[in-house]
Amino acid sequence: MPAAAFVQRLHEQIANEFAASQQYLAIATYFDDETLPRLAAFFYAQALEERNHALMMVQYLLDAGEPAPIPGVAEPKSTFGDVVEPVALALAQERRVSDQINALAAIARQESDFTSEQFMQWFIKEQIEEVASMSDLLTVVGRARDNPLLAEEYLARESAGDEGPDPTAPPVAGGAL
């Protein structure tokens, strides 16, 4: 059974993950509206990934016999001054989520909740990758500010070899929806 402090904080993190998903949807539609389909597709995929992170946490709580309320989230930012601003927002969001994930792991360790601490390890690894990926994209989009098609070319080139789903990822509530 997970520690009560961990469960409370995980409920908050579920809201954070759903909010991140909504923010990525808003960014994706911004890029879609700007006729930048690769950037839009990248952020649509990020939105789905964040939603699945929330549902992994929901499944963990359900498996542990804990309630898993689904929270509402605040409206995301949907207007941006240029193509760099939404990516900068995304990087800041990923850094904030990394801090939140690390805090959850710390609570689990502090409470001697080793099962929950183990559960958080996948998310810690995932956040390292997310921050690195978003940081690289911000660098590229910053360079391509005046010609965002260069960022589109970068994404076309770099996403050609996506590996697919991570077999070590925790299960998602509802399966692979």
Notes on the structure:
The chain is an all-alpha fold and 177 residues long. It has one domain (4-158): Ferritin. Helix content is 70%, strand content 0%. It has helices at residues 4-33, 37-63, 84-110, 114-143, 149-158. Helix 1 runs antiparallel to helix 2 (37-63) and helix 1 (4-33) packs antiparallel against helix 3 (84-110). The longest helix is centred in the N-terminal third of the chain and has 30 residues, at 4-33. It is elongated. The two termini are 27 Å apart. The model has no long low-confidence stretch (mean pLDDT 94).
What is the SS-derived class?
mainly alpha
Biggest β-sheet description: none
Radius of gyration: 17 Å
Q: Cα distance, first to last residue?
A: 27 Å
Indicate the percent of residues in helices.
Answer: over 70%
CATH class: Mainly Alpha
Quick summary:
With 177 residues, the chain is mainly α. The protein is 70% helix and 0% strand. The model has no long low-confidence stretch (mean pLDDT 94).
List the helices and strands and how they pair.
Elements: H1 4-33, H2 37-63, H3 84-110, H4 114-143, H5 149-158
Structural features:
single chain; 177 residues; mainly alpha; Ferritin
